[in-house]
Structures are given as structure tokens and as C-alpha cells.
Amino acid sequence: MKIYEELQARGLIAQVTNEEEIKELVNNGKATFYIGFDPTADSLHVGHFMALCLMKRLQMAGNKPIVLLGGGTGYIGDPSGRTDLRSMMTPETIQHNCECFKKQMERFIEFGEDKAIMVNNADWLLKLNYLEVLREVGAHFSVNNMLRAECYKQRMEKGLSFLELNYMIMQSYDFYYLFQNYGCNMQFGGDDQWSNMLGGTELIRRKLGQDAYAMTITLLMNSEGNKMGKTAKGAVWLDPDKTSPFEFYQYWRNVNDADVLKCIRMLTFLPLEQIDAMDKWEGSQLNEAKEILAFELTKLIHGEEEAQQAKTASHALFSGGSDDSHMPTTEITTENLNDGVINVVDLLLTCGLVASKSEARRLIQQGGVFIDDAKVESIDDNITSVELEKGIRIRKGKKTYHKALLKPSQG
């Protein structure tokens, strides 16, 4: 099976602008394509994961990826799927986040001569003259058409800023620049980027003519896969210091039954024949499928050794074992204690298991918090420093485990 047909069989393609041309390019290793990543945090998250997998598959088939870091577009912020204005980042934060992205991607995508390249749109966007952009780029965009775009709809309800309105122009200019300077003939993106990507092909047509336009391809990734990643955006990171390999493994181990085979098909590199044989799995077999998914994806991001350790720790934990060496852990300091104790509500908040005290209270009152396998009965319960010195195991619901330890005194 050729790569385009494999992408279809894995459910990765939702829509393309020129299907026959894209088949010809990617199946013969002639595509030079880009995917953009705006540096909104200091780590990639699982919302980026499908794009990285798609990039890796195409590279393995001989095509050339361009990783575009949004060091310039990060100054504006993508309004797609937002109901509020993104927080403004300082230039130093944007640069730091770009460096973090770069290090993570280098473990996943193969960079080098005739392989993948990484570029930063700050290198050309920050040099643009405002009046030149208005005349040379802005003149080719209809505001009426822009306001009908899906990426702006949610923001229109609360008020779309002029700053955000320019995001489509900047992203479109990226494709135009990459086409001219890097021979980029294809752009990939998620369902929320469709209008922005079509803006890029239209800009090329208007600026360079129909012949250039005929050479550009836009591919929309399947929105189902995009949604699966976005459900954990901001919560499950690819950086092991923000989401441990054990937590990463557990996230995929706990996906919904209805999503597990979809995730295996879209995100792992297991042969399709092996995945097709799982289609009829049900009941306890779906738990086995979840373990396969969790192991394969943890191995891709963190390596086989970490994946095996996470799998072993998960088995020990859920079979009633005592091995919690790979469990996410929070050190409680003496400053967190009041007269040698910490209230259980404060403990949940300190460990990052809840977003607020009200959430912690509600969780406890619903019987969803356990400490060392004993249900927490009251929001007034306290944990002593003696208990914390030994270490306690917290369980939130059925599947989220955490350990709390008293940090040793420095004296």
C-alpha cells in the first residue's frame, strides 16, 4: 500500500484541494510540505501529536517536512477555536518556547541535509514593513470572506480584535514565503486551519499566477484525530518534566473504549493488518488494546525503556501492588503545613489534582478521593507530617494516582 492510501486507511485525511496531485507527490516522495506550530507554551502537548505522527510517516516515505515554528505568528495568537483573546507573550517567552519545541521535535523528526528542516517565521514576519504588508498582502484579502471563516466564528461572538484578524494574513504569507524560498508545495493542518490554509493558496495564485497556484496542495487532517488530541491540550505534555512517562502512559491507557482502535490506527506505526485484526475486539480485549496503544505512544515519545517502566508500574499499581516508584509525586514543604498537618483540600490543590478548592470539596463529597486506599470521608480531614514522611498514595476517581511526600528539611 502506498503512503497516500495508507493515510486514508488510517483515517488521517479529511479533505484535500487536489487529490490526484497529492497522490502523485507523496507516493513518489516529491512533496515538500510544512506544518506550523505556534509556541503557546514551553512544551508540545498531545494536541500536536497527530501532526508529528503524520509528518514522520511522510518523511519515512521519502517526502521532505518543513517544521515551521511560529515565532512571528506567536506575537498575534491564533484565534481558531477561541472564545477569548490569547494572553500576550513577551518576545523572550516566545523565543524560549520555540527552543523547547525544537528540542522535543529533534527527538521525533529526522533533521539534516535532504531530510527535514526547521524554520521560524519570525525570520521573515518581524522584518515586514506595515505599509508594505497592507499594499502587497492585505490588498488580496476580502474582509467579508475573512469574517465568514470558521476560525473567526467563536471570537466574533465576544468581539474579534483587529490584531487577531491579521492572523490569517500572516499564516497565508507563511505559505507564500515557503513556496518561494523553500520550494514548499504542500501545507497540512487541522480542521480549524482550513480557512487560513486556503488563504495561503489564494495569495500564491494572486501574487504569482495560476501556474504557481496549480502547484500548491492543501491537506486537512481528520478532525476526529485532531479532537482526540485537543481534549488533553494543556494537560498532557510531551515534556517528561511536565507530564511524566507514567502519566503519559496512563492517559492513553484510559482512553474511551470507542476511541482506542481509532487512536491505534491514527497514531501508532503498527501495521494496518495487525490493527485490522483488532477491529472485532471487545470486552477485556479492549483493555489489551489500550495497553498496546499506551505502550506504543509512550515508546515513541519517551523511548522503550521508559515505556516498559511505565507499563510495569501500571500493572503493579492496578493489580494491588506496592510499586509506586514511577508514580507522579509532589513534595510537600513545611510551609504547606499548619501545626504539623495539611488539610486534604489543600493537599489536592497543592498536588495539582484539582484546579480549585471548590472542585476538591465537591470531589471529596462525592466520594471520589482515596488516601492509601481509604476513602476520604470529610473535607475537614487532615494529613499529618508523620504520614507524609512515610509517603501517602492519593487516588482521584478510579484511574488517577499521585504520591505525596514531605520534603526533607535542609538543615
Automatic annotation (TrEMBL):
<dbReference type="InterPro" id="IPR001412">
    <property type="entry name" value="aa-tRNA-synth_I_CS"/>
</dbReference>
<keyword id="KW-0963">Cytoplasm</keyword>
<keyword id="KW-0436">Ligase</keyword>
<feature type="short sequence motif" description="'KMSKS' region">
    <location>
        <begin position="227"/>
        <end position="231"/>
    </location>
</feature>
<dbReference type="InterPro" id="IPR014729">
    <property type="entry name" value="Rossmann-like_a/b/a_fold"/>
</dbReference>
<feature type="binding site">
    <location>
        <position position="167"/>
    </location>
    <ligand>
        <name>L-tyrosine</name>
    </ligand>
</feature>
<comment type="subunit">
    <text>Homodimer.</text>
</comment>
<keyword id="KW-0694">RNA-binding</keyword>
<keyword id="KW-0547">Nucleotide-binding</keyword>
<comment type="similarity">
    <text>Belongs to the class-I aminoacyl-tRNA synthetase family. TyrS type 1 subfamily.</text>
</comment>
<feature type="domain" description="Tyrosine--tRNA ligase SYY-like C-terminal">
    <location>
        <begin position="327"/>
        <end position="402"/>
    </location>
</feature>
<dbReference type="InterPro" id="IPR002305">
    <property type="entry name" value="aa-tRNA-synth_Ic"/>
</dbReference>
<dbReference type="Pfam" id="PF22421">
    <property type="entry name" value="SYY_C-terminal"/>
</dbReference>
<dbReference type="InterPro" id="IPR024107">
    <property type="entry name" value="Tyr-tRNA-ligase_bac_1"/>
</dbReference>
<dbReference type="InterPro" id="IPR054608">
    <property type="entry name" value="SYY-like_C"/>
</dbReference>
<feature type="binding site">
    <location>
        <position position="171"/>
    </location>
    <ligand>
        <name>L-tyrosine</name>
    </ligand>
</feature>
<dbReference type="Pfam" id="PF00579">
    <property type="entry name" value="tRNA-synt_1b"/>
</dbReference>
<dbReference type="InterPro" id="IPR002307">
    <property type="entry name" value="Tyr-tRNA-ligase"/>
</dbReference>
<feature type="binding site">
    <location>
        <position position="230"/>
    </location>
    <ligand>
        <name>ATP</name>
    </ligand>
</feature>
<keyword id="KW-0067">ATP-binding</keyword>
<comment type="function">
    <text>Catalyzes the attachment of tyrosine to tRNA(Tyr) in a two-step reaction: tyrosine is first activated by ATP to form Tyr-AMP and then transferred to the acceptor end of tRNA(Tyr).</text>
</comment>
<protein>
    <recommendedName>
        <fullName>Tyrosine--tRNA ligase</fullName>
        <ecNumber>6.1.1.1</ecNumber>
    </recommendedName>
</protein>
<feature type="binding site">
    <location>
        <position position="34"/>
    </location>
    <ligand>
        <name>L-tyrosine</name>
    </ligand>
</feature>
<dbReference type="GO" id="GO:0004831">
    <property type="term" value="F:tyrosine-tRNA ligase activity"/>
</dbReference>
<dbReference type="InterPro" id="IPR024088">
    <property type="entry name" value="Tyr-tRNA-ligase_bac-type"/>
</dbReference>
<keyword id="KW-0030">Aminoacyl-tRNA synthetase</keyword>
<keyword id="KW-0648">Protein biosynthesis</keyword>
<dbReference type="InterPro" id="IPR036986">
    <property type="entry name" value="S4_RNA-bd_sf"/>
</dbReference>
<feature type="short sequence motif" description="'HIGH' region">
    <location>
        <begin position="39"/>
        <end position="48"/>
    </location>
</feature>
